[in-house]
Amino acid sequence: MDINKYFARVGYKGSYPPADIDTLSAIMHHHIRAIPFENLSVHCGEPISLNIESIFQKLVMKQRGGWCSEQNHLLYWVLNTIGYRVVMLAAHVYQPHLDEYNPFATHLVLKVTLDSKVYIVDVGYGSSSQIWQPLELTSGMDQLQIPGIFRLSECNGIWFLDKIRRKQMVSDGLFSESELLDKSSYRKIHCFSLQEKTIDYFLESCRFHQTSPKSAFANKSVCSLQVPDGVRTLVGWTYTETKYNYRMGVDLVELKTLQNNEVEEVLKEKFGIILESPLVVANKPGTYTI
C-alpha cells in the first residue's frame, strides 16, 4: 500500500511531517470530502472485508466509499504510517426510536494523542452528524464546526457525543414530514469508553450490518458525502442536499425522489462512485435520518 496513493485519492497536497493538529485536521478535512460514507456493497452482493489491504483497494484504488469500520480503519493506517499516536475505540450509537444507546458498541472511532492533548477523530459517521474536525477530548466544552456545535461530556468514564443543531427549512413542502428528517435541536450521537480496541473487535458488527434484518444498513441503501457548504445524502431513492447555515441559524434541506434509472447516475455525478455490480436500491421500513 502506498501512502501517496491515499493522499492523491483525497486530494491532500500538504506535508505530513510534523504529526500535529493542523496536519491532522487537514487530512480529515480532505478525507470526508473525497470518500463517501456508504453501504452500497451490501446491496450489490459484495462482501465487506475489514482487512486493511482490501479496504485500501476498495476506497483508494477503486474510489469507492465505505462505512465506519472501513473508513476509520483506513485513516488509522494512514495516521500510524505518518507518525501519529492513534488507537481505536468502540462507540455505542444512540437509537432515537428506542431512546437508548445500542447495547453493542458497533461504531469505530479513533483517539489521537498530540503532546498533552487528546482528540477524537471520526471520518465514518456520515450525513449531518459527521464531524468535520478533530474534537478535543474535553468534557462539557462546546466545539463549533460548520455542521453545528458538537459537545463531548464525560460521566463515570463514559464519554457522550451530542450535537446542537440548527433549525431545518425544507424547500419542498411535500417532504416536510419525511421520515428522513430529524427535527430535534439537540441530537445524541454515540457514547464510548477509552478502552483500546483492535479491528478484530468490529468483525461481528460488520457481519451483522451486512446480513441481519434488524440492521438499518441491511434494509436501506445509503450514501453520503460532505461538501464545502453541507452534505449530500442518498437513502433508497431519496436524494438530499443540506446546505448548512443557509440563513442565520437555519439549514436548507432539499429533497428529491429519483427513478430507478437515475440512481447510478446520481451516484456518479454527486458522489463520484461508479459501481462494478448492479445495485438493488433498498429502503425498507426502519429508522434512518439525515
Automatic annotation (TrEMBL):
Organism superkingdom: Eukaryota
EC supergroup of this enzyme: transferase
Pfam families cross-referenced by the UniProt entry: Acetyltransf_2
Keywords annotated in UniProt: Acyltransferase, Transferase
Gene Ontology MF, one: arylamine N-acetyltransferase activity
InterPro entries assigned: Arylamine_N-AcTrfase, Arylamine_NAT_domain_sf, Papain-like_cys_pep_sf
Enzyme Commission designation: 2.3.1.5
Family: Belongs to the arylamine N-acetyltransferase family.
UniProt protein name: arylamine N-acetyltransferase
Record organism: Pyxicephalus adspersus (African bullfrog)
